[in-house]
Amino acid sequence: MPSAAPINGVGIVSPETHQVRSHGPFQLRRIHPGISLDQQDDAGFGGLGVIDHARLQPGLVVRMHEHRNDEIISYMRSGRMLHTDSAGRSEVISPDRLMVMNAGRGFYHEEKVLGDDQIEMLQIFVRPEAADAEPNVQFVALDEAERDGQWRLLAGPEGSDAPTFVRQALYLYDTHLPAGRSTELPSKPGFDRWLYVFRGNVAAGEHKAGKHTALMFAGDGASPKVEASEDTDLVVFLVDRTARFSREGTIGG
């Protein structure tokens, strides 16, 4: 079993810990979700390896390239993107269409920004429980109304009731909280929680978190209600950090 550093109270991953890069029409904020836990040689959060908060400008094409041994969730909040891959699929992804690539032993893809709107998205690199599995790609339509003031389940382990799967003990939810609304975090026994403010501001007990900030809560501890001080978009990961994971991923390892 992997050894997971404990979360004492509420852990914080601040924007100052991110790797910020800008390459013309491509701006990237790379987040290491366990960087504040002081785990030796590992800045991941169990099976949650790396998160890229990206902005892609109109006209950008990310040419065909390979990923291996990452489960990659493409979660978009604005814009539209054409995805083409080595499985012969060509699909448009957007805020109402989620994509999950289970790269396995090797998967190639290309992405092109469509239209005149900037894309803002999370590219989430999950570490699979084992390397070199069969590659796969999934697309699912989303209903934006399902995240209005409530948690919407987006991804989960194989065999769960989530609309897409990753080969890891991990769940992903999102929500939109209007100003003044509050919510309790989803929970599952044995799963720690990693809450990210995509945009907006929240308070969780005595802790405040603005855009690009994450809060961590231990699965066996209480978590305060999360209240939005302005219109806010949130995502939360539930992760069993004792579950086995591979570190052979192209990015997430």
From TrEMBL:
Keywords: Iron, Metal-binding
Domain (Pirin N-terminal): residue spans on this chain: 54-126
Cofactor note text: Binds 1 Fe cation per subunit.
Keyword field contains Hydrolase: no
Iron listed as a keyword: yes
Cofactor requirement: Fe cation
List of residues binding Fe cation: H65, H67, H109, E111
Domain of life of the source: Bacteria
SUPFAM superfamilies: RmlC-like cupins
Pfam family name, one: Pirin
Entry similarity comment: Belongs to the pirin family.
Protein name: Pirin family protein
